[in-house]
Amino acid sequence: MPPVKPMLAKAVKRIPPGMQYEAKWDGFRAIVHRDGDELVLGSRTGKPLTRYFPELVAVLLEQLPERCVLDGEIVVAHGGRLDFDRLSERIHPADSRVRMLAERTPASFVAFDVLALGDTALLETPLRERRRLLEQALAEARPPLHLAPATTDAALAERWFEQFEGAGLDGVVAKPLDLPYRPDARLMYKIKHERTADTVVAGYRFHKSGPVVGSLLLGLHDGAGALQHVGVCAAFPMRRREELVGELEPLRMGDVSEHPWARWAEEAAHEGARLPGAPSRWSGKKDLSWVALRPERVLEVAYDHMEGDRFRHTAQFRRWRPDRDPSGCTYAQLEEPVRYDLSEVLSARV
Fold it and tell me: Catalytic residue among 5, 24, 175, 208, which?
């Protein structure tokens, strides 16, 4: 019965040998519970996603076994690749908008594990057997329901790692073949791309615990020379957070009118530029204020991939670059993955 938390993965640098390999999908992780005419889409945190994806509910009721629990990912495709921004728009409080977006940006469900079939719970069943049962259960699946490609060929997994990023996926997941299903335990392995970029540190937010740095606000210059907010760098030990306040104090601006992001609090300003503090339904009543710094310091960060013109996930601190000029921190330095059509991913031969 819902809620059930999904099994998780821990990050490793290389694809480990002797496992089952799958693409790492960039969407909303979801546990699907079906019992006759009842169907629940449970999120990673256990909260239901059902009302936000009515088009998926209809498809899953039509195609899934009468009683089952599946693990998978809700994704939205656009232009032949995954589009996380369009997926995020689907979480909206207004029912009318939910139904309008269900038609305009319909979602798909990619299934990659099965936790129960009929009256049989499969949590203690090894992965190799669960995969066999999943393939049988979804043998007649039709879009937008998909069976995730999987392989035990490590060389093929390496090719997937290189190719699938061009379709908006962000790596490979490796799963031990004898692994039972353990909700909320990090027993699988995820291998993600890592790249570096020189960014401009143009501000910071305080940590929720007090007057220490919570996150550094990062920027890149676009083709017109405007500094665009591209993400944050946030993982620091508490002592380092305290040190950063002192290190950055000489750059702190009393008058922010000359800062490139000076209009961040104006909703209209976000329409033509990427600024920190963009209003969204995710932020709610969260304090989005920040400390403005003169955009003079360059930080090298590691990132996995881009979502449009921003870092998809939190960037990782690598080193200060006093030898670099902030004006050289542009989008042009970023590596662009070779395009790869999402339909090729979903029909990958194993």
Answer: 24
pTM of the full predicted structure?
A: 0.76
Whether residues 204 and 183 share a domain: the answer is: no
Say whether both 178 and 224 belong to one domain: no
Q: Is 208 a catalytic residue?
A: no
User: pLDDT tens across 122-170, in order?
Assistant: 999 999 999 999 999 999 999 999 999 999 999 999 999 999 988 988 8
Angle between helix axes 95-104 and 54-63 (nearest 10 degrees) is 60
Q: Count Cβ atoms below 10 Å from residue 207 Cβ, excluding itself.
A: 17
* Residue 47 falls inside a structural domain: yes
CA distances from 100 to 67, 84, 87, 120 (A): 30, 18, 13, 38
Q: What domain range is 82 assigned to?
A: 8-193
Cβ–Cβ < 8 Å for 302, 194: yes
Q: Per-residue pLDDT tens for 98-130?
A: 999 999 999 999 999 999 999 999 999 999 999
| Category of 171 on φ-ψ map: left (φ > 0), alpha (ψ -120 to 50) or beta | left
Q: Which residues contact 225 (CB under 8 A, 6 or more apart)?
A: 327
**How many domains does the chain fold into?**
2
Of 151, 166, 193, which residue constitutes the final position of a domain? Answer: 193
CA distance 305 to 86: 17
pLDDT tens digit sequence for 302-313: 998 888 888 988
CATH code assigned at 325? 2.40.50.140
